[in-house]
Write a structure and sequence with these properties.
Three copies of one chain form a homotrimer.
Chain A (H helix, E strand, L loop, with lengths): L5 E3 L14 E4 L2 E7 L14 H18 L7 E9 L4 H12 L5 E7 L8 E8 L1
Parallel strand pairs in A: 4-5
Antiparallel strand pairs in A: 1-2, 2-3, 3-6, 4-6
Chain lengths: 128, 128, 128
């Protein structure tokens, strides 16, 4: 009944910037690390617009989920850490366009700052 | 063994303000979206006292859990995002009165601000 | 198939400061409450260095996991709430030394302040 914990690693999302995995799995649950708007080649996106950063973070999350056979539909819960609560509406618009007919549970958590002056970080729990 | 992911929706808690569900379920786990102190009729509660907002958020969380047959006892973990760490004691008092003999795991996370100037947002993981 | 939710309690980690358990379990998942750098005897560590606080928080998390038969290897996801994003590098260094060959999923969430002026709080999800 109990599966081994697995470490997920894909070259389609940025390598971890520190001592963590892109995601871990336990049975059919997937725990995705906080994703910043970096590109899969490791180049930074902290100078990109807020909207662009939201989209890149979400794409990174989904690329990691794809590595274990999932998709947008697999996402159970998104937590978005946002610098500047005034971005709420813009965040929601980009997010809605990205997820379309899929409505995961969600929390938007304003934070005072993020690593490398990124404007948003997104982590997630999914099932595959 | 694997159940479909389900989207939870109840009229006993406020409708989502953005592109998310009140909660999702996977097998017997429930992931509840961040709840603000809005009422189930959609009216806002951001002008209410901090204590009142804590109670309303918790009631929203539990109403969503009830929709899938759970109760306060079903809560595994609460994460409370609070504007103003000085509210810690007041938060804990209202929270203790609300949960009574039930002691979920918990994290209190101070944040610089919340959507619509709410003072607290609460999300949760539960099992039913 | 469905186990009862269990409340975890160990004297090897600080008692909860408020109305919560050190952790709850559901089947083989463990939800660990936000740990501050207090000692298991209840004495506070908020005057200790940032590095020292990181290590103490992580030790508290692992002591709680040990109570249900787990270890560092059991950790699926760490969320670290940090006062001052400028501590990122120092956090990562202490964290890497602590976890060694283990790479849980992780999110680092800057916060404006923490209870009792602590500099870091860490919660976790694990499987045992």
């Amino acid at each position: 009944m109990k599966d081994c914990k697995n470490i997920i690693s894909t070259t389609n999302a940025p390598k971890p910037f520190g001592h963590y995995s892109q995601a871990t799995t336990h049975n059919d649950l997937v725990f995705i690390s906080g994703q910043l708007a970096a590109n899969s080649d490791g180049s930074h996106g902290f100078e990109n617009s807020f909207s662009s950063q939201v989209k890149q973070c979400l794409e990174n999350v989904i690329e990691i989920i794809k590595e274990v056979g999932g998709s947008k539909e697999s996402v159970l819960k998104i937590t978005a850490y946002v610098v500047g609560v005034e971005h709420w509406e813009e965040f929601n618009n980009v997010y809605a366009e990205f997820f379309g007919s899929v409505y995961p549970a969600r929390a938007l958590v304003p934070v005072p700052a993020l690593h490398n002056n990124y404007l948003i970080e997104i982590d997630a729990v999914a099932s595959v």
